[in-house]
Design brief:
Homodimer. This is Cysteine sulfinic acid decarboxylase. It holds the Pfam family Pyridoxal_deC. The chain is an alpha/beta fold. It has helices at about 15-35, 50-60, 70-85, 100-115, 125-140, 155-170, 175-180, 200-205, 225-240, 260-270, 330-335, 365-400, 435-455, 480-495, and strands spanning about 150-155, 185-190, 215, 240-250, 275-280, 305, 320-325, 405, 415-420, 460-465, 465-475. It has a domain at about 115-365: Type I PLP-dependent aspartate aminotransferase-like (Major domain) (Aspartate Aminotransferase, domain 2), CATH 3.40.640. Helix content is about 40%, strand content about 10%. It binds gamma-amino-butanoic acid (ABU).
Length: about 500
């Protein structure tokens, strides 16, 4: 078998280099113009909806033996942009992330241009040191003494929660690292029924089992009921199981509730349980002296998940796990691969941080956040948080007494606002037998209309016995009061019948 003749390496010769340079510049122009600026212009659509079968016809997804020309590749890139949802658009209020931060974007592109893997100092000197600084600063903001402890940037908050479970389990029974599940009694952890699904998912992934995640009731505002937590801990002890961890939530996914961390910390202290706080969503409030009291008691946590890609609008993904226990990530996860973490290197190998994570290759997600932080200062981050809380309050006040709108939670604690929209045809019929069923169908219908028009995106869900309601999320400080009015009027227009 003969190999085909080799083409010159990517940037090996000048003509090839010029050829690619020109192509890269054209692509960047397309991205800057169409994805960034036009994609976030209020006069343009958030999305250009196509059914899956139609999109398969419209876009050239196929892979072929023959290469495509640059001309064709540029067209394909334009299609990718054209048919993608513009999550940086001001009217994308669908998810717990949105907006385009210019500094974050540039740094994200720099990360991709440099293509590092943050596991050793020799490969990622800048990013290893940058992580050290950012994680320490974040721990300080959380309130860990002197910013001491451990931490890691993870691919998403779910994985950060998984790391927390793994560290808590290791701390409870270090034998688990070598002996695995055989070394363990039946472990039980506790979280609220409104907590993020990753707690169950990662408990299953780690061999703890979803049945051993005891769900604690929430009160009418979506906060963990601490007396029920105590009952459930006692129940697990009565069953001969081994409770080892509580995962509190600071900013629940749907309602935006903050669990009472101080009271939960007291319970954890009494029963000697690891306290994790999933502040993936609400963590951003910590940078605001006005709003950080929402997370009172977080400084007593053993571990904290905090995603700067959420309330602080760093580009996806930017998730951290912060721990008060120095060195615990490496203790729980290291395996000393000789081909990466040689101890006889010529520099201080404590900067080879990669053995503490369960990934091998790992993106430098730190850069975008650090660069944004540099550009705005901590005061700029605080201003951003205050503005999004103001926006959320303004929106809430606009709909609270408006005909056709009904709040799910009267006073939302975070910047996700949950509400029902009752269209004119359903008003005044609360007592009718099928009212709930009909109301349940309203949000999906309005969502369908807004997606098909591409005018805005806001999500909906049912929760427990409640029929479908909208959840609008504010985390872009680029939004103004006029945008809040626009959202209200758009929902009225889309649900006018
Ligand atoms: N962790 C993210 C939850 C998904 C969302 O509602 O945006």
């Amino acid at each position: 078998i003969h190999s085909p003749p080799q083409k010159p390496a990517f940037f090996e010769s000048l003509p090839v280099r010029e050829h690619h340079e020109d192509f890269i510049r054209q692509c960047v122009d397309v991205l800057v113009k169409e994805a960034v600026f036009e994609g976030t212009n209020r006069n343009n659509r958030v999305l250009n909806w196509k059914d899956p079968e139609e999109l398969k016809r419209l876009m050239d997804f196929g892979l072929r033996r023959a290469p495509e020309s640059h001309e064709q590749l540029l067209k394909i890139l334009k299609d990718v942009v054209g048919y993608s949802v513009k999550t940086g658009h001001p009217y994308f209020v669908n998810q717990l992330f949105s907006a385009v931060d210019p500094y974050g974007l540039v740094a994200q592109w720099a990360t991709d241009a440099l293509n590092p893997s943050v596991y050793t100092y020799e490969v990622s000197p800048v990013f290893v040191l940058m992580e050290e600084v950012v994680l320490k600063e974040m721990r300080q903001i959380v309130g860990f003494e002197g910013g001491k402890g451990d931490g890691i940037f993870c691919p998403g908050g779910s994985l950060a929660n998984g790391y927390a479970i793994s560290c808590a389990r290791y701390r409870f029974l270090p034998d688990v690292k070598a002996k695995g599940l055989h070394a363990l009694p039946r472990l039980v952890l506790f979280t609220s029924e409104d907590a993020h699904y990753s707690i169950k998912k990662l408990s299953s992934f780690l061999g703890i089992g979803t049945d051993n995640v005891y769900l604690i009731r929430t009160d009418s505002r979506g906060r963990m009921d601490v007396s029920h937590l105590v009952q459930e801990i006692e129940r697990s002890l009565g069953e001969g199981a081994a409770p080892f961890m509580v995962s509190a939530t600071a900013g629940t996914t749907v309602i935006g509730a903050f669990d009472p961390i101080t009271e939960i910390a007291d319970v954890c202290e009494k029963y000697k349980l690891w306290l994790h706080v999933d502040a993936a969503w609400g963590g951003g409030a910590l940078v605001s002296s006005k709003h950080r009291s929402l997370l009172k008691g977080i400084e007593r946590a053993d571990s904290v998940t905090w995603n700067p890609h959420k309330l602080l609008t760093a580009p996806q993904q930017c998730s951290t796990l912060l721990l008060r226990h120095e060195g615990i990530l490496a203790e729980a996860h290291s395996t000393n691969a000789a081909y990466l973490f040689q101890k006889d290197k010529f520099y201080d190998t404590k900067y080879d941080t990669g053995d503490k994570h369960i990934q091998c290759g790992r993106r430098a997600d730190v850069l975008k956040f650090w660069y944004m932080w540099k550009a705005k200062g901590t005061s700029g981050l605080e201003k951003h948080i205050n503005k999004v809380f103001e926006n959320s309050k303004y929106f809430t006040d606009s709909i609270r007494h408006r005909e056709g709108f009904e709040m799910v939670i009267e006073e939302p604690e975070c910047t996700n606002v949950c509400f029902w929209y009752v269209p004119p045809s359903l008003r005044g019929q609360k007592e009718s037998r099928d009212y709930k069923e009909r109301l349940h169908r309203v949000a999906p219908k309005i969502k369908e209309r807004m997606m098909k028009e591409g005018c805005m995106m806001v999500t909906y869900q049912a929760q427990k016995e409640l029929p479908n309601f909208f959840r609008i999320v504010f985390q872009s400080s680029g939004l103004e009061k006029a945008d809040m009015v626009h959202f209200v009027e758009e929902i009225e227009r889309l649900g006018a019948d």
